[in-house]
Amino acid sequence: MMNIIERDASLKDFLLQKYFDASNNLPSWIITSCVTALTLSALLSQYIPIVPKYISDLQLFGYQVNKFGYTLLAVVFFYVSKSALGFLFYQSIGDGRKWSVFYFTSTKFYFILSFLLIILCVAHYYFPVDRNKIFLYYFYFFAFVAVFKIFFYLFHKNNILPEKWYYKFLYICTLQIAPLLLLWKLLFF
């Protein structure tokens, strides 16, 4: 991705790049989102207790959805709906021009997160780990990432969240915390 889309930029150049100097923001965002969704699904699918009956009864081209497919569908639905609601949020408060800066900044966060998820997937699938013990560590890791993401968005130099404090609070509660709880309920209960 760095060679083609970002025109031979190094990792440091990509992470320190300013919004107005950047090009190909949308393809970078889409590729990073796909990698994050795939690796997160690969990591979480081993812990899904069951695929709901109404999902497993659906047959797509003669194939039945397994745990990975169900997790991938849930994560993609989560990510697409969260992005669409974020776009509508910025448009509804009259700050639509900040949306492109927001997804430019969030691409950098998810780019680093995707590297960490790839490392976790390699460690999970290629090294002998006790799945039951490591789940608690994964839970703490994802809780830390969620809290760190909120602070990253709050204190980033691009000021990607709205200026007024109540819009910041509304964004954090409705578009950061509530979707994570919904995804947790959808996958694990």
TrEMBL record:
Q: Which GO terms describe its molecular function?
A: hydrolase activity
Q: Which InterPro entries match?
A: DUF4271
Q: Which domain of life is it from?
A: Bacteria
Q: Which Pfam families match?
A: DUF4271
State which residue ranges cross the membrane. Answer: 26-48, 68-89, 109-128, 134-155, 167-187
Listed A to Z, the keywords are: Hydrolase, Membrane, Transmembrane, Transmembrane helix
Stated name of the protein: Putative neutral ceramidase superfamily lipid hydrolase
Species for this entry: Chryseobacterium shigense
